[in-house]
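Quick start: read one record
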Amino acid sequence: MRWFRFAILIVFVTVVQASVLPNLEVSPDLLLILLVFFCIYCEPNEAIITSFAIGFAADLIGSPMPLMPMGPQTISFGLFGTLLAYIHRVINVRKMPYQALTIFITALLAGVLAQFLAMLKGHVIVSNIWGMLLGVAIYSGLVGPFLFLPSAWWMRVRMHRFARR
């Protein structure tokens, strides 16, 4: 794992997520897409570390739900990133439709858990949270697999380990 490149990528995506995407009504969660990318293409130990780091970045900017308290997304991203890293040892998620489905399911589950943890702290974020979570999950699932190739190029990750030479 190239940690310096990882840090630059996370800072760049966090800035884009915080500055450009809030202008859209429903936007993809780029940090969650990166979470799934690192869980699929990294070793489980590295994927767990990156999951908590990405969750912390999501908490810093309130992505995709503004005014969320600090902590719920770090916990939910870390938990589901860890789960996805260990599931990836058994299930291979290398084709784009499977990646889109994985992003969709992870976005829904992580969003629901983060919302539940925020409600435990007494914060009500949005009145139509289910519609927003579903919109973010669908849009992230559609856009996500197309962002894997530039992310792999930047991180110098070989996407096809078992391809013929």
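The chain has six helices and no strands.
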